[in-house]
Amino acid sequence: MDVSYEFKRLDEITDHFSTPKDACQTYDAVIEFLKEASYLHNELVG
């Protein structure tokens, strides 16, 4: 299953996985997890 498109869209939508200063801890954690998953995906798939 190729999720490259989804990670690309998440990167665009979140402005490169940045979070607002007033975001809750859960949102921060989810964005950080997605950022790491995207990085690992790019490392493995290219």
From TrEMBL:
The organism's place on the tree of life at top rank: Bacteria
Protein name (Swiss-Prot/TrEMBL): Uncharacterized protein
Source organism (scientific name): Globicatella sulfidifaciens
